[in-house]
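Milestone M4 deliverable, item 7.
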Amino acid sequence: MPGDTIGTLIPEEWSGHRMNLNIMRYKNYVWPHNPSNIEVSITRDLREINIPFKGSLIQDYGQEKRVVSGEGQFFGENCIAQFDSLFTVFKQDGSGYLALPGMTPFLAIFSELHLIGNTMPNVINYEFEFWEDLSPHIASVNLNEDYHTVVEGDTIWSIAIKYNLSVEKLLSLNVNIKNPNKLVVGEKVKLK
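Output delivered:
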């Protein structure tokens, strides 16, 4: 759809700009051409708990941050200026929206930028890495609280995840909890 503008599907900082959705972009930087290799790594935080005489239990602490890495080239007479433009964005503090070809943009922090290999005339090779910024999703969690008041749907596992504690730690602090699979709404769970 040449000539169309992007509306509410793209962050406000990009609205009103004409753009090709298949081009990689971060904050206000648009790659002149996509990197030659992009890898998106998404993992889950799984932990195994051994229960005496019963076997083991796998706990799923949820999806961890996405890590985007890759490599590319800048070429042409202005290849150094192209790299310098990307380096300027790298030096900026804070997170911004990262758009990858075929993916919904998400908040990320530009964590690494490397100039690599032997450069040829008018060619610069580089590598990069971005980490997904999950801080807006956990900003409402107060890690300094002494107690958590159980609400509908809470489990000992969900409380452990919310406060970045292990289930074992929560259970050792709350010896009064007889059945960790059935918490009572309004019950106080000790966190410290």
